[in-house]
Amino acid sequence: MTFDERFFNAAGERGALWSIDGKGFGEAPGTVTMGGISLPIVEWTDAHISGVWPGDREIGPLVVTSANGHQWTGHFNV
After folding, report:
1. Model-level pTM?
2. Mean per-residue pLDDT for 20-30?
């Protein structure tokens, strides 16, 4: 999995859309969590993941796990 330099876009408010762009995510949906909280997925492709932000500001590790178990972890503050 690789991510674009601007890999995560989100406004940080409940209901805001977020997106992660890159490549190698796989076609089958995996999971995205931040600070241990699952982020709802709206779209998952090999090059793009998007969803809806479930709550107000969170701080913690952003973990993307592909359907085949590959993981990428970064730290992100919204």
Report:
1. 0.78
2. 90
